[in-house]
Design goal:
148 residues, alpha/beta
């Protein structure tokens, strides 16, 4: 039995089939309480439903957005099984976030309150991090290109 894709995944699945990927994070939304940032790639999932994540293989970062009533079920394990670079979880109701080290057994590192506030605010921190990464990649590529 083939698992279904999350809602809103079709455009991302099509782009991945062409060798492309989202420019930024992939956000997996499990709550109505999250106000989406306009440039983020979003998919929507329901608790207790298993989804196909083969199209997400190799993405650098996925953030699961939840609230206090959300039951994650097998979602974290399924995402980790897709070999995503980093999986994070943000609880928008309680204002907490975690980096997921392992789904089985569950092992996490708590985000700092500043990081959570920025995530739930205007997203400027994310924009700055992405800009810094892009600048580093350009500098790094230039450095290696001219190495003897």
């Amino acid at each position: 039995m083939r698992l279904q894709y999350p809602r809103n995944a079709a455009p991302i699945v099509e782009a991945r089939a062409k060798g492309m990927r989202p420019a930024g994070l992939l956000i997996v939304v499990m709550t109505d309480r999250y106000e989406r940032l306009p440039n983020d790639a979003h998919v929507f999932v329901d608790a207790g439903v298993r989804y196909c994540w083969d199209w997400a293989r190799g993405l650098p970062n996925v953030v699961v957005v939840m609230d206090a009533r959300t039951k994650l079920g097998t979602l974290l394990g399924d995402l980790m099984g897709a070999r995503i670079g980093q999986v994070d979880v943000v609880d928008v109701e309680r204002g907490k976030g975690w980096l997921v080290n392992s789904a089985q057994p569950l092992s996490t590192v708590r985000w700092s309150p500043l990081q959570v506030r920025d995530w739930l605010g205007d997203g400027s921190w994310h924009a700055e991090v992405e800009e810094a990464k892009a600048q580093y990649e350009v500098l790094s590529a230039g450095k290696w290109r001219y190495a003897a």
